[in-house]
């Protein structure tokens, strides 16, 4: 296809890096080809904001570093892009909302800053559900992003633009955020890989807040190795985020921690020879096989589990008895936190201000009513209700109690039975755009397999594991869940699977 970005010739960030350091390719050439391709795929509506001059200035800086002969930073020249909830100097940061349609931040989010320092070249800002609230990217004020495998379907949400851009080959990797599944779910529906690390691992400074006890940043890329190349440099303690951890199970939370854990895990796996995952105990929650799961998704997940067994792993049944309860629990806690976080958009300090109003109270209420979309308004209403006097104990406090039980269930499974837990990411393949519009609760129910992990603050991934849906053309993801701070091990397990299978190498037709 015309406008194929040059980086798509390379099947990993590592291979691209080699071409860049040997100067057989320049960051400038790469960036121009990627920008052209991104503009040519406007049909995907994956990008909300592209600014060629800003991107080319970053590419120019990367080329200077690469030409200097010294050790260029690890991602010098690698084309990436950011979910539009990370604030960026220069590019607008909208969070997919009319409220912030013209907002330009005076500073970069830590994630953006760290990738910039590592030399990555940003192509711009990616579409997402408004304030990350949604599972289909249909709640964006700027229209839905589309799934490159079938543009009549959703890419998943809320990091839909990120997954669509990676799946369409427009960038090598993209940043995302995951509050209740927003990295894993779009990765699954777009046939790419994604990881949400342990809560507190990656700084949220400059990440527009939604549910603060749940929000975590994570990358989306083609495969586990590329995820590592992005996750490792963005992870690490940041004093500007009060939830950022200084230590992870005794190791300092610094870039390099996840990489060294990954390398150690790979080394230990070498001892297994042709059975690298010998003895790995995979917990399969019996509650994940239920009437909500489509047959084609169940089949692909079963086949993936068999592939893991062929690599030496063993399957054990585990129980996560409160899986169904994770939906009402999450949809009390997340809206409660959202209602508080979004109270800052008052028409005075940030964002949209109504053109006409009588007094201050009317100005605030009009500004908010005009600029927030229906899903955001719904969650603010739910959140305000569950926090209100007389209902707080019955809903919010109760949800917090169940949240602890859900986290305990995972710990029981890990302590007694298994090293990792596997299952589906989503109950179905990508739905058609518009299918869930009449019934917002249907969209909430689709989060059943991802919410427990988020409530517990655990790390989890999605890796491509097959196809289903109409004509078997839509991707399916396998979820791999680890215990706290086991990101490196998760990535190593996923890497072995990806060495043995080629689902992650499949590309949609137009590429
Ligand atoms: N933000 C997320 O992780 C997506 C989740 N479906 C939500 O709407 O809250």
TrEMBL record:
Indicate the segments forming the Amidase domain, all copies.
35-491
Annotated EC: 6.3.5.7
Q: Which reaction(s) does its UniProt entry say it catalyses?
A: L-glutamyl-tRNA(Gln) + L-glutamine + ATP + H2O = L-glutaminyl-tRNA(Gln) + L-glutamate + ADP + phosphate + H(+)
> Is Ligase found in the keyword set?
yes
Give a Gene Ontology cellular component term annotated to this protein: glutamyl-tRNA(Gln) amidotransferase complex
Q: Where is the active site?
A: 83, 158, 182
Nucleotide-binding as a keyword of this entry, yes or no, is: yes
PROSITE patterns recorded for this chain? AMIDASES
Annotated keywords = ATP-binding, Ligase, Nucleotide-binding, Protein biosynthesis, Transferase
MF terms per GO, please? ATP binding; glutaminyl-tRNA synthase (glutamine-hydrolyzing) activity; transferase activity
GO terms in the biological process aspect are: translation
Report the NCBIfam families cross-referenced here.
gatA
- Which family, according to UniProt? Belongs to the amidase family. GatA subfamily.
What is the documented function of this protein? Allows the formation of correctly charged Gln-tRNA(Gln) through the transamidation of misacylated Glu-tRNA(Gln) in organisms which lack glutaminyl-tRNA synthetase. The reaction takes place in the presence of glutamine and ATP through an activated gamma-phospho-Glu-tRNA(Gln).
Q: How does it assemble?
A: Heterotrimer of A, B and C subunits.
Q: Return the protein name.
A: Glutamyl-tRNA(Gln) amidotransferase subunit A
Organism per entry: Pollutimonas thiosulfatoxidans
């Amino acid at each position: 296809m015309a406008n194929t970005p040059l980086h798509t010739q390379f099947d990993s960030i590592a291979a691209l890096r080699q071409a860049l350091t040997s100067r057989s390719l320049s960051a400038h050439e790469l960036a121009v080809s990627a920008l052209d391709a991104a503009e040519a795929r406007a049909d995907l509506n994956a990008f909300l904001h592209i600014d060629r001059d800003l991107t080319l200035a970053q590419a120019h800086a990367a080329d200077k570093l690469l030409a200097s002969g010294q050790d260029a930073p690890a991602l010098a020249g690698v084309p990436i892009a950011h979910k539009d909830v990370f604030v960026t100097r220069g590019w607008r940061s909208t969070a997919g909302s009319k409220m912030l349609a013209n907002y330009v931040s005076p500073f970069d989010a830590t994630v953006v800053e760290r990738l910039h320092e590592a030399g990555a070249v940003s192509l711009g800002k990616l579409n997402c559900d408004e304030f990350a609230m949604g599972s289909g990217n249909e709640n964006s004020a700027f229209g839905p992003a589309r799934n490159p495998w079938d543009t009549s379907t959703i890419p998943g949400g809320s990091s839909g633009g990120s997954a669509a851009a990676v799946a369409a080959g427009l960038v090598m990797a993209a940043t995302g955020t995951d509050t209740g599944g927003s990295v894993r779910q779009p990765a699954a529906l777009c046939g790419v890989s994604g990881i949400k690390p342990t809560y507190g691992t990656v700084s949220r400074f400059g990440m527009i807040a939604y549910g603060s006890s749940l929000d975590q940043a994570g990358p989306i890329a083609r495969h586990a190795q590329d995820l590592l190349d992005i996750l490792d440099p963005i992870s690490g303690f940041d004093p500007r985020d009060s939830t950022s951890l200084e230590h992870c199970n005794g190791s300092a939370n610094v870039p390099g921690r996840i990489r060294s854990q990954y390398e150690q895990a790979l080394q230990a796996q070498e001892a297994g020879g042709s059975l690298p995952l010998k003895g790995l105990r995979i917990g399969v929650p019996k509650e994940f096989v239920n009437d909500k799961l489509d047959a084609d998704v169940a089949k692909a997940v079963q086949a993936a589990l068999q592939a893991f067994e062929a690599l030496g792993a063993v399957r054990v049944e585990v129980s996560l008895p409160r899986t169904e309860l994770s939906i009402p629990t999450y949809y009390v806690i997340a809206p409660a936190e959202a209602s508080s976080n979004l109270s800052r958009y008052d028409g005075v300090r940030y964002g949209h201000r109504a053109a006409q109003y009588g007094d201050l109270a009317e100005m605030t209420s009009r500004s908010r009513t005009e600029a927030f979309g229906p899903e955001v308004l719904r969650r603010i209403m739910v959140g305000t209700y569950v926090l209100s006097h007389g209902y707080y104990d019955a809903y919010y406090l109760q949800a917090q109690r169940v949240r602890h039980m859900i986290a305990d269930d995972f710990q029981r499974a890990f302590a007694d039975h298994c090293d990792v837990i596997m299952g589906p990411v989503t109950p179905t393949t990508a739905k058609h755009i518009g299918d869930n519009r009449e019934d917002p609760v249907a969209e909430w129910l689709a989060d059943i397999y991802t919410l427990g992990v988020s409530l517990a603050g655990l790390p989890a991934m999605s890796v491509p594991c097959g196809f289903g849906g109409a004509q078997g053309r839509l991707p399916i993801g396998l979820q791999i869940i680890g215990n706290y701070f086991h990101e490196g091990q998760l990535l190593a397990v996923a890497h072995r699977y990806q060495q043995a299978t080629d689902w992650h190498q499949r590309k949609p037709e137009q590429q």
